[in-house]
Amino acid sequence: METPMIYYIIISTIMFFAGVYGFITRKNMLMMLISIELMLNAVDINFAVFNRYLYPDAMEGMIFTLFAIGIAAAETAIAIAIIINIFRHIRNIDAENLDDMKY
Amino acid sequence: MESIAQQVIFYLLAIVIVICSVLTVTTRRILRAATYLLFVLFATAGIYFMLDYTFLGAVQLAVYAGGILVLFVFSILLTSHPGERTPQASIVKRILGLILAIAGTAICTYALITYPFETIPLTGGELDVKAIGHALIGMEKFQYLLPFEAISVLLLACIIGGIMIARKR
Questions:
Q1: Alpha-carbon gap: B22 to the closest alpha carbon of chain A (Å)
Q2: CA distance A78 to chain B (A)
Q3: Which of A43, B1, B128, B150 gets the most CB atoms within 10 Å of its CB?
Q4: Do B18 and A14 lie within an 8 Å CB cutoff?
Q5: What are the 10-residue block averages of pLDDT along chain A, 103 residues in total?
Q6: φ, ψ for residue A36, nearest 5 deg
Q7: Of B34, B60, B98, the CB nearest to A34
Q8: Chain A residue with minimal CA distance to B137?
Q9: Which of A7, A69, A76 is closest, CB to CB, to B71?
Q10: How much is the pLDDT for B169?
């Protein structure tokens, strides 16, 4: 447990901004969703680390991470349902072709 | 002796997380991106185990690595040909993303390193599951029955919404 807290936070920072880069550069909606998962995961690590190192007697950060994991699962399931439905209509899941759905 | 082993494990996990999360967003093959994401999620579970949150690590493995990744792989196989390379984004977009990511990392790292966190020397050990269970199903202060029930309603709405969106007309 002697690892300094800052190491954990730097790892999660790198993970978060890798997610930001992927979200900007990808066109495929599934890849954008994967980037969002990376960002969510980085935030979850931060909650757990802050809880462990700054307030070791409380467990708010851990409970919050539990709820965040549950919500992330629900959100991903709905997003993938939408993406597959879009694929059925326009045979393509690139984000820039999405405005075809309007016509 | 034990602390040296912990250091080695921590650095291994750190290397896996950094390399695989960068590869996730740079590889051109989408199925490989999902595989690298799986490694990132495994290493995150390892970090939770190192922080002594074993229940959280188990949940991470079961829900993320076991559930969400399977959903991702299935939907990737449904919507693209295996081995297909996704087209590269335009050079302007890539440079913009790179600048944003590097600047963000630098600023956040600087802010975090200079901030004086007051870490408390760690006591206790592993958090037992009984305490977590009491915190989840209780109505006192620092107990979380209401969010727990809200999540259950959210999951029900999610099931119904998923069926409604994905069914054939």
A1: 6
A2: 5
A3: A43
A4: yes
A5: 83 94 90 93 93 86 92 92 88 80 72
A6: -65, -40
A7: B34
A8: A63
A9: A76
A10: 67
Q: Which pLDDT value is given to residue B89?
A: 78
Report the complex ipTM. 0.91
Token reading at A21: 């880069």
| Model pTM score | 0.91
Q: What is the DSSP letter of B116?
A: -
Distance CA A60, CA B56 (A): 13
Residues in chain B: 169
Contact B30 A85 (CB under 8 A): no
How far apart CA B20 and CA B23 sit, in angstroms, is 5
Match domain A5-102 to its CATH number in 1.10.287.3510, 3.40.190.10, 3.10.150.10, 1.20.1440.20. 1.10.287.3510
Same domain, B6 and B77: yes
- A49: CB partners within 8 A, 6+ apart: A5, A8, A9, A12, B51
Q: What is the residue range of B79's domain?
A: 2-87
Residues paired with residue A94 on neighbouring β-strands, in sequence order: A28
Q: Cα distance from A39 to chain B (closest Cα, Å)? A: 10
